[in-house]
Amino acid sequence: MDYQEQLKLQAYLDGELPEAEAKAVAELLTKDQQAAALLTELRQTTESLAGFEQSIPLPESREFFWSKVRRGIEAQELRVEAAEARPTVSWSARLRRFLMPAAGVATTGPGTTPCSAPAETDARDRP
């Protein structure tokens, strides 16, 4: 069994072969005892190693780190642009909106009208 056939067996085990090649390898396995034995050994090795894989955290590459920084800056810029697009009302304008009617009521007082004119005085009332 040559090296290329061994690689095809590994690809067959991993499910990486196109359908036509997978059928050819399956046919080879029925005819060749050595290929069947190698496939069994590869399958057992894969299963035994699968339980012992340790996840090792890899450090971020420099490019990945700076791409995260760039995406964060772009996201912040979008938030600022969205905030600038919204019309803002200052706190003093909001306060005036509610205090102006209250001030109008307070200056007129109860029982008076805002447009009442002073009563005309008679000439006799003058000193």
List keywords for this structure.
127 residues; mainly alpha; 0% strand; 5 helices; rod-shaped
Task: Give structural notes.
Helix 1 packs across helix 3 (33-50) and helix 2 (19-31) crosses helix 3. The N and C termini lie far apart (136 Å). 2% of the residues are buried. This protein has a domain at 3-50. The model has no long low-confidence stretch (mean pLDDT 80). With 127 residues, the protein is mainly alpha-helical. The radius of gyration is 44 Å and the shape is rod-shaped. It has helices at 3-14, 19-31, 33-50, 62-85, 91-108. It is 67% helix and 0% strand.
Short description:
The chain is mainly alpha-helical and 127 residues long.
| Rg on CA atoms, Å | 44 Å
Oligomer: single chain
- Outline: rod-shaped
Low-confidence blocks of residues = none
Portion of residues in beta strands equals under 5%
* DSSP summary: helix tally: 5
The number of E-state strands comes to 0
Q: Report mean pLDDT, rounded to a whole number.
A: 80
Class of secondary structure makeup: mainly alpha
Biggest sheet details: none
The helix content, as a percent range, equals: 55-70%
Distance between the termini: 136 Å
